Amino acid sequence: MTNLEKYQEVLKKHLGATEEELNDEKMVYNRYPKWDSVRHMSIVAELEEKFDISFETLDITSFNQYSAGIEILEKLGVSMQ
Amino acid sequence: MLFGIEKRPTDQRAFCSEDGTIVTYGALVELVRRFVKIKLKRALVFCLCENSPGAVTGYLGIMEAGCVPLLLDAKLKEEILDSLLKQYQPAYLWVPDNCEKEYILNSCPVLFQCFGYKLYQTEYAPYPMADNLALLLTTSGSTGSPKLVRLSRKNIIENGKAIVKYLQIDKEERAITSLPMQYTYGLSVIHSHLLAGGSVLLTKSSIVQQSFWNFFEKERATSLAGVPYTYELLKKIRFFERQSTHLHVLTQAGGGLSETLQKEIGEWAVKSQVRFYIMYGQTEATARMSYLPPEKCLDKPGSIGIPIPEGKFFIVDSEGKEIKQQGLIGELVYQGSNVSLGYAECRMDLQKQDERQGILETGDLARMDSEGYYYIVGRKSRFIKLFGSRISLDDCERLLKEKYPGTEIACISYQEKLIIFTTEETIVDKVYEYLTEHIQINTQSYSCILLDTIPISESGKIIYRELERYLSIT
C-alpha cells in the first residue's frame, strides 16, 4: 500500500468517507458532516502513529481539507508520490 | 433594553466576526429597535444559531420584541428540526441564508433580515405562554429530545450580573466564542460581556483550525472559555507551551477537568499571568452556580469552588434534609435567582409557571471541605453497586484517564456490570488489572470494549445513552 493509500484509509476509517469523496470539494473540515474536532484529533493521532511522525501545532490547525493533509505529510518527510 | 445595551457608548464594539463585520452598540441598538417595530405577536421563535452577528442580533431582537426564542444549532439534522417544529409549532423562524432548510421555508413570508439572516413567518399561529418565559434552551443539544429548559429574563440578567462580578468583566474585555451560542455556557459568555459593555469576537471556526487562531491574534482576544475537551485539545496543540500577551482570562466548565490537567493549566496560568477559573453550572441554573477563585486553583484540585455572588449551596441527604456536618456526601442543592422556571416537554408546558421557586436539585453528589469549598463526587445515578459497595463511574473514568493519559475512556453500568469503553487498543487487556488495585471487581463483573470513537456531544460531554444503546444492540 502506498503512503497516499494509507492516508486515504485513515480518512475513510474515521470519517466514513467513500473513494469519490476524497477531494477538496467534499473533504473540508467542518463542512464534511463528520469532520469535527473529535475526529480531527483521532485522524491526526493515527497518522502520527502510522507514519511515525509528530504534527506541530500549525500542522494540526492548518489541516483543513483533503489536500492539506497530503502537503503536511510531505512536509513531515512522508513521501506521497 | 436587555443588558442595558442602549446605555453604552454608541461607537463601542459589541461584536466583530471573522469575516470583518463590526457591530457597534449603536448599530446593535438600532437593529434591535427595528426588530421591535415589526410588532410581532408574542410567540415562540426557533432561532437557528451559529456564532455570527446575525444570530446574536436576531436573538436579542426577538427577546426585545417580547417573543421567546428557542436556540438550536443551525446544523441540526433535518429530521430532528422537523420533529421539534411539529412539537412546538413556532410562529416565526430566524434562519441563516446558508442554511439548507428550504423545504420548510419555501412558502413562508420574510418579515425582516440582517447580516445574512431572515425572519420567516410560519403557518403556525401564536399560542399562549407564561408571561415570565423569556428563553428556551435544549437539554441535550443534538439528540433531538423535546425536553427544554424554561428561563425568565430575571434568570438571564441575574446570572449575567453574578458572572460579570466574579470574573471582573469590564468594557475592555474581548471574549472569543470558542463554544456554540446555543449551548448555555457559550451563551453566558455573550450575555455577561454585553452586560459589562465589553465585546464578543464571533467565530464559527473551531480551536483546531488555524482560522480561529488568526482571528484570536488579530482581534487580541482577552478571554477564552472551554469545556474539559477544549482543554485537552489546547494541550494537544501545545497552547500551554506558549505565552499570549493579550489573553488574561481562561474559564472552564461543562464537566470536571482531570486533576493533572488542572494542575498543569493552573501552573501555566500563574506563570503567564492569566486568571484561570474553574466553574460549575447547569442549563437548569441558566449557566453558572459556582466558581473556584484563580488563586485557589492549585490548592483545591478537583473543587468546583464556592457559590457565585447571591447564590447558595446546600448538601442534602436522601430524605432531602440538610447535612450540616462537613465532609459528608449528599445531593447538591442550589438556591439563587438564576434557577430556571422548570422544564417543558411539549408546547402546553410553555404556559407553566415557576415550578422551582429558586431552588434546584442538581442531581450531582457533592461534599464541602472545612473552608467551604465544594467538590462534585459523581452523579446521583452514575454509580454501580459491585459486591455491596457503591462505586462511582466518574471516579473509575478519572482513575483510568489519569493512569493512561491521552486515552479516551468512558465507564457505564449495564446489567450490573461495569463496562469500560476505550479507543486505545493497547490498554484493553490492562485496565482490569489496574482497576483491581482500586476497586473490588472480578472478571465476571466487568468488560472492556474497544470503539473507534467515544460519542461526544457538542459541549464535549460523553453521551452515555449512545453507549448503552450500543450494548443493547450487540
UniProtKB/TrEMBL annotation, chain A:
<protein>
    <submittedName>
        <fullName>Acyl carrier protein</fullName>
    </submittedName>
</protein>
<dbReference type="InterPro" id="IPR036736">
    <property type="entry name" value="ACP-like_sf"/>
</dbReference>
Automatic annotation (TrEMBL), chain B:
<dbReference type="InterPro" id="IPR000873">
    <property type="entry name" value="AMP-dep_synth/lig_dom"/>
</dbReference>
<protein>
    <submittedName>
        <fullName>Acyl-CoA synthetase (AMP-forming)/AMP-acid ligase II</fullName>
    </submittedName>
</protein>
<dbReference type="GO" id="GO:0016874">
    <property type="term" value="F:ligase activity"/>
</dbReference>
<dbReference type="Pfam" id="PF00501">
    <property type="entry name" value="AMP-binding"/>
</dbReference>
<keyword id="KW-0436">Ligase</keyword>
<dbReference type="InterPro" id="IPR042099">
    <property type="entry name" value="ANL_N_sf"/>
</dbReference>
<feature type="domain" description="AMP-dependent synthetase/ligase">
    <location>
        <begin position="7"/>
        <end position="343"/>
    </location>
</feature>
<dbReference type="InterPro" id="IPR020845">
    <property type="entry name" value="AMP-binding_CS"/>
</dbReference>
<dbReference type="InterPro" id="IPR050237">
    <property type="entry name" value="ATP-dep_AMP-bd_enzyme"/>
</dbReference>
